[in-house]
Specification:
about 425 residues, alpha/beta, six-stranded mixed beta sheet, four-stranded parallel beta sheet, 13 strands, globular, disordered N terminus
């Protein structure tokens, strides 16, 4: 596990017993089951296991709940009754992310030999062009509830931009920390919102370690680190992907879903969302398979899966897919459990396959994915070829970010088809008139 720090207390001035986070009633240890009051804590004081939100979810007529959701706003707040947020969340300043397109990818399906229906959940349509807007929106509500004044995070890029933008909209100060060698597009996007952006010499795991130390220091008083001391709430934002996919498929679960794995939190929360939908009677209780996708240059979970191990050994990242470059993934063991329980798998692709998959998705569906999306599409193709994904079943693939953030990955092999003089003879000579 990547989280070793003892849970931190709430700010002394905050009475967490009065916190209103909607249906959220407690924090529960994923390992030993011990419960704790809602607060900015992320690790169990008894066993150091990760904490997650426990709920008192709505009961009653599933049809009425479906109708209420469908009548809600066209963003994640339509699912407020299932998330750790107050009932009036939609009235507060927010980027209002979510309800992004589920694209029926028939051209990509034809290329990959999929006959049962292939869909791309395209989260590049979020306000800062990645799925991180979802998780940050939930963390902001927790930060409000616990009286924090500064929003922070450790980030491989997308999260830094999402925190900067959400803080600006919600009226928080922001100070975010990134590895010093991120893609320039992500650095600019994180800095433009006016908060403090700090580059740390080292990789993401070094950044995360620094942030854990800062939380325990007086310098960090009043700071809400969205993916550390607010992590239990932050992670719940990924459940909205599960809810949207099911709703957009006509209130049914996909047979198979392929999800990129960095920390692994997104995959575990999508599984949690599917199980909640079943428990609430909103979808039919039927089997589904979950597949994890990693880049070969940072594939600790895939390596463990293929070796049949339960322990995920850290790796030093070396991949163009920097948004997935977490060498010591906190939720890695849980990803293994879910892949095995559902009959899925965890696979990886190399950098060349990532670039090829980015271009394939762009060419077939007009979706320009960042490198994480290339990983997911590349792994999907590899799993189909290996016979692990059934092409006759409904399959959903996640694209979690916009390719404009990772231009360097495709720039060396992408450019003008030809450069010609401005006349028709030159155009004809280039052989483009009938191409």
């Amino acid at each position: 596990m990547a989280v070793h720090t003892v849970a931190t207390p709430a700010p002394p001035s905050q009475d967490t017993s009065a916190v209103d986070l909607g249906p959220a009633v407690a924090l529960s240890c994923r390992e030993c089951g011990e419960r704790f009051p809602l607060g900015p804590v992320f690790a169990c004081v008894s066993c150091f296991g990760p904490l997650e939100v426990a709920y008192d979810l709505p009961t009653g007529d599933p049809e009425a709940l479906r109708a209420a959701i469908e009548a809600g706003p066209a963003n994640i707040w339509r699912y407020a009754p299932l998330l750790p947020v107050p009932a009036d969340v939609a009235t507060k300043p927010s980027l209002n992310p979510g309800f992004t397109q589920l694209v029926k990818a028939d051209h990509l399906a034809a290329e990959l030999g999929v006959t049962g229906g292939l869909y791309v959940k395209d989260d590049s349509g979020n306000p800062t062009h990645s799925f991180k807007d979802r998780v940050v929106a939930i963390a902001v509500e927790a930060a409000r509830a616990f009286g924090f004044t500064t929003l922070s995070c450790s980030s491989t890029g997308n999260l830094a931009g999402a925190v900067g933008a959400a803080a600006a909209r919600a009226g928080f100060r922001s100070c975010v920390f990134i590895p010093h060698d991120l893609e320039q597009g992500k650095v600019v996007m994180a800095a433009v919102y006016g908060g403090d952006l700090v580059g740390i010499e080292g990789n993401y795991d070094d950044v995360n370690r620094f942030c854990s130390e800062l939380i325990g220091d007086p310098l960090g008083e009043g700071w809400g680190f969205v993916n550390v001391n607010l992590r239990p709430y932050y992670g719940e934002g990924s459940k909205s992907l599960a809810y949207e996919i099911a709703e957009q498929l006509g209130w049914r679960l996909p047979d198979q879903i392929v999800i990129p794995v960095a920390s692994g939190s997104q995959l575990t929360k999508i599984d949690k969302g599917f199980k909640e939908l079943i428990a609430l009677g909103l979808v039919e209780d039927r089997p589904y398979k979950i597949f994890g996708a990693q880049a070969e240059g940072c594939s600790p979970v895939s390596t463990a899966y293929k070796a049949g191990h339960d322990v995920v050994r850290p790796q030093k990242p070396d991949t163009i897919a920097k948004s997935l470059a977490i060498g010591n993934p906190a939720d890695g063991p849980y990803v293994l459990d879910i892949a095995r329980r559902t009959g899925g798998a965890v696979e990886d692709v190399d950098d060349a396959q990532v670039v090829d998959a980015i271009k394939l998705l762009a060419r077939t569906e007009g979706i320009f994915a960042e490198t994480a999306g290339g990983v997911t599409v590349g792994v999907t193709r590899k799993l189909i070829e290996a016979g692990l994904i059934d092409p006759s079943l409904t399959t959903v693939v996640l694209n979690t970010g916009d390719g404009l953030k990772t231009l360097d990955a495709v720039a060396p092999t992408t450019g003008p088809t030809a450069t010609i003089r401005p006349d028709l003879d030159a155009f004809r000579a280039a052989g483009l008139a009938t191409s």
